[in-house]
Amino acid sequence: MPVFPVEPLTAAAAQILVAAGTPVDIARSVAGWLAGADLAGHASHGLMRVPWYVQDIQTGQIRPAERPAITRETETTVVVDGHAGFGFLAAAAVTERVAAKAQRAGVAAGAVVRGNHIGRLGAWAELAAERGVVFWLTYGGPQYFNVVPFGGARGRLATNPMTFAAPAGGTDPMIVDFATSAVAAGKIWVARDKGHGVPAEWIVDKHGRPTTKTADYFKGGALRTAGGHKGYALSLMVELLSANLTATATDAQSPLGVFALGIDPNAFGAGPAYAAATRATFQRMRSTPPAEGFNEVQIPGDYERRSRATIQATGIAMPEPTWQAILDCATSLGLEARAIERLARGE
Questions:
Q1: What is the pLDDT of residues 45-84, one digit of tens each?
Q2: 225 and 181 in contact (C-beta within 8 Å)?
Q3: pLDDT single digits (tens) 321-332
Q4: Residue 190 — pLDDT band, cuts 50, 70, 90?
Q5: In the CATH hierarchy, which fold is given to the domain comprising 1-65+315-347?
Q6: Spatial CA neighbour of 79 closest among 259, 241, 263
């Protein structure tokens, strides 16, 4: 499995996006966010997605030169129009705006309309936590029916993920980030490229039967919801917020949207007490005696923080099929595969 230093690989990815028609500054930002997912240990949302985005550019789903704009705003709300550009830009804009409004007004909410894929959602929770705001963001809508509802045999939901940030006043925040499906769809691609099977709790085949074979997913199968009926309910909730409540705020035929909610820790007048109580809660969790087979109890977000330190030092590893797909994408855009490989290796 080839391993690449982070910065050169990110630069190579940006060059491919530029060749697909993306302005240089946007390409660098998008490649940076993708590499950030790899660093966080979530390759399913990392640089492996470059060929996907290039394909979306070529089909017109992503308009690579478009930049987000605010179309509606009050003291406590904001609507960001992504103009069908890269979703990362709109997600960053709504996060920054909601965080700033929450700090002024106590509570604020925002929406992204005419958006696209926004990458690893935890990145936006981390951004809000850096601004000192409690934050919740949902993303989804009825765009890809690749998840079966509880009791169903056909896909009728998207993966409909959500993320949550809880800053703790001087210590590492809690960062929750998960799909309401049993797993993100990209992880099925990662398992396939590595030649691995998956747990039967993750997917069903085209007949709605649980399966461990990734090939069954790509032959008409679907993902399962996390936690059975509870994940199904959460998925519907995300669709209602991200699509029905927000995406319908535009006359464009785009069912995909983002809902964001920010709360200042001092919204109810207990900012310092909140921070102290949150640190105590985290310590209570971490001091729990570990169960058999575990070394410790972590707080959501610990895994990603540790992963960054490790992968930054060792480099980003990619399954051979994943890297070949990126090289094939570069070649299709008129770039020389050998030159892209040298750039990615820092040579």
A1: 999 999 999 999 999 999 999 999 999 999 999 999 999 9
A2: yes
A3: 999 999 999 999
A4: confident
A5: Hypothetical Oxidoreductase Yiak; Chain: A, domain 1 (1.10.1530)
A6: 259
Tokens 């590893």, residue? Answer: 317
Handedness of CA 153, 154, 156, 159 (dihedral sign): positive
CB within 8 Å of 182: residues ≥ 6 apart: 201, 202, 203, 223, 224, 225, 226, 231
Cβ atoms of residues 182 and 231 within 8 Å: yes
For 257, counting Cβ atoms within 10 Å of its Cβ (0-12 exposed, 13-18 middle, 19+ buried), the class is: buried
Q: To the nearest whole percent, how much of the chain has pLDDT over 90? A: 88
Q: How confident is the model at residue 116 (pLDDT cuts 50, 70, 90)?
A: very high
Cα–Cα dist 68/84, whole Å:
9
Residue 93 in contact with residue 80, Cβ under 8 Å? yes
Least Cα distance to 125 among 158, 89, 99 occurs for 99
Cβ contact 125:146 at 8 Å = no
What's the CA gap between 57 and 117, in Å, rounded? 12
Q: Where in the chain is the domain with CATH 3.30.1370.60?
A: 66-181+225-304
Region 66-181+225-304: CATH code = 3.30.1370.60
Mean per-residue pLDDT, 188-193: 89
pLDDT, tens digit, for every residue of 205-236? 999 999 999 999 999 999 999 999 999 999 99
In the chain, residues under CATH classification 1.10.1530.10 are 1-65+315-347
SS3 state at 293: coil
